[in-house]
TrEMBL record:
SUPFAM superfamilies: Enolase C-terminal domain-like (SSF51604), Enolase N-terminal domain-like (SSF54826)
One biological process term in Gene Ontology: amino acid catabolic process
Entry-linked SMART domains: MR_MLE
Name of a matching Pfam family: MR_MLE_C
PANTHER family: D-GALACTONATE DEHYDRATASE-RELATED, STARVATION-SENSING PROTEIN RSPA
Protein's UniProt name: Bifunctional D-altronate/D-mannonate dehydratase
GO molecular function terms attached to this record: magnesium ion binding; mannonate dehydratase activity
Record domain Mandelate racemase/muconate lactonizing enzyme C-terminal: where: 130-257
InterPro entries cross-referenced by the UniProt entry: D-mannonate_dehydratase-like (IPR034589), DgoD-like (IPR034593), Enolase-like_C_sf (IPR036849), Enolase-like_N (IPR029017), Enolase_C-like (IPR029065), Mandel_Rmase/mucon_lact_enz_CS (IPR018110), Mandelate_racemase_C (IPR013342), Mandelate_racemase_N_dom (IPR013341)
CDD domains (alphabetical): RspA (cd03322)
Amino acid sequence: MSKIERAEVFVASPGRNFVTLRLTTSDGVTGLGDATLNGRELAVASYLRDHVVPLLVDRDPANIEDIWQYLYRGAYWRRGPVTMTAVAAVDTALWDIKGKVAGLPVYQLLGGRSRDGVLVYSHASGTDTASLLDDVARFRDLGYKAIRAQAAVPDAGASYGVRKGTVYEPAAHSLPDEQPWSTEAYLDFAPTYLEAVRDRFGFGFHLLHDVHHRLTPIEAARFGKRVEDCRLFWMEDPTPAENQEAFRLIRQHTTTPVAVGETLSSIWDVQHLITEQLIDYVRTTVVHAGGITHLRRIFDLAALYQVRTGSHGATDLSPVTLAAAVHVDTAVPNFGIQEYMPHVAETMEVFRSEVRFEDGMLHAGDEPGLGVEYDEKAAERFPYEPRYLPVARRLDGSVHDW
């Protein structure tokens, strides 16, 4: 019987900070898992090295469900982003191994194809409305059928989702960048640039927008009602999701679809949002929600209530997570859309992936497992660099949700 012989944790910064778990079996089969928690990477690396790796050696890698339950229930201290990201890394690596042993891509192990490709959206942004419109045009020329639009709020300092240069990298400083925020200015301005996008380009593509947790429920309701004529695919994270009941108020005032879940890590965190149909898209992702095993449970629950998937997919998730997401997206019946930001060249020097973009969609490829390899030697050229996500402050100096 094959056993897990070795478990290694790699921390490197090829463009962004990534934590990668590699499992190796006694038969020489390897599996990769992403363990990245942006801004708190070393907490997960320590959780794996100090507490999980010793538990894995000599276990049967085929027993994915049993290992998941062992790591989740056996810890006693359940849930939370650090625990669930560590469990996810192990789970994803085990699915990679199982696919390689079976000689099949992971999506085949999940039931096979439900679609030919995975619809994705990417991120257009601008320092003002004019530059945003130019960026939307660029993404349309690249073949995207769905585009998220964000623009800098005038006279309000930094704004979420706006690139500086060619790459959007919010975690760019050794200490948190403290950014000013004005809700009033945002509510006045954001609808105008979304309307400008529709005025210029029409309705022949999907338009998305990320509020990024910054509004109260009634403010979010006001915003959603104001932009109804823009026919957004969704407004993302309109208010912090810890208070699931808050989304009932938003529902009462607007028909703009709501997407939530990238910061949530378990089925219990989204249970009422789904079962009471307070959202339209659930954005939990492989790496932060316990791996493929647990994410599939979330998506199966969502399917019962006509809630579709829309997994988080920023570049602080490694190509391992992107590949795992695309395999899951390919198989589940209630897929909605997948976030996609192409990784920079340095990242792809370390991770070799079979995932490819074509005609507005991602394709998983048919290599056994996840179709991703990790170049340990290349990773050594990119040592870890402490980086934090920003902190938002209202104009009076008080801390706000970033």
